[in-house]
Fold:
Amino acid sequence: MTTAVLAHTFTGSETYAPFASGVLPAFTGTFTIHAVRTGANSNSMNVDVKFFNSSSTVCWQQSITWTAGTADHGIQTFVVGTPSANWACGDWTGWSMQYDNLQFTPQATGSSITLTLDYTPLTPPGACAYGAEPNPAAAVYTYITETLVEAVAVALGMGPLGVIALGVMIGAPIIFPVCDHPPAMPAALTNADFVDGTALPNPLTLNKWKDHFVYGVWLFYCQCKPAPSGQPAPTQPPKPPVPPRVGPGPQPVQPCDNADICTTLRNITNILTTINLSITNNNYVQTEPAYTWGALYAGISGNGEIAVSGILGVFVSFSTLPNRVGGSVGDPNTIWDAGFIDYGSDDGWYPRQRITSNPWLSLPLHMTNISRVGYSIPADCVVAIHLLVAVPMALAAAPGT
Structure:
């Protein structure tokens, strides 16, 4: 329960205009008003209470009348929207009190009036509670450019070094976000996600950087839908925590004296190491990694799915392949009616892939968000499904080390 109070001490100059007003956010349900006056109360008094919106439209109005000699009017209970004829709108932002037109005798100077309103505030909605939509003001990019990187860094709350860090994404195709709901918050960046002592990304954790970039792309390309009339404004999606080394504001000044020259040399070495890694691995952002064997699931038949993370694809081989399976001779031989493989995330499934050979290899694009592999294998077939994962990247040493 929340309480709002309007109070006024009479000066004798009051007219039929509001003599007290205050902020009052819209709410729903039951509310009460307790009206009390102090000082001389020998006169009767009629006061109008009004709820009004930003356009000065009166959403609701109620007259409160004191009889001569009465100080405490008591507590009155009301319900928003009931009766509906008394409510012109539901998006009020403030409330006021003033003399009713039936008030003919001003109150004595120095006497006062206090209105206490108790209500239950609206529950703050979650991020984009009313849905989300594309931001029409956002420029469209086909590939990740320097301009887009700058916009994403600003959306994420990063500073100049954040722009440099995200610059490793430049040139890669952009994956346009789905704007109907906010994305999941990416895992926080830690010191392990940087090349030691610098603000440059660690090549071994580029997937985390990509997750942050994709989240920033959503913040740039999408926006929350506005609140319906009478509802609180939507809560904006939160921004991931920004590590201090890529945050906004002044950056640490590098020492430039003989007392601490080693720190500067160490930072220069780290930067050269990162440049060497990028060249040696032929631009590690855009190069497809080699695959190796991951987990093996043998004796698979029928329908089901496997929970996965960070895979590149699957390798399928048959231990039982009945004669009824059709095929055609080739290199390799093509088989028919031997089952399907599907890749999916929490949001849905990719188009299914038909198993067309034995063994069969599948390495689709855009596997970062894949969290499950579905299979549909005929009851008379038995397969082994081998997950394929990336070969760990070998780091090259910096020249001269």
In short: The CA atoms of residues 172 and 286 lie 6 Å apart. Residues 280-286, 393-401 have pLDDT under 50 and may be disordered.
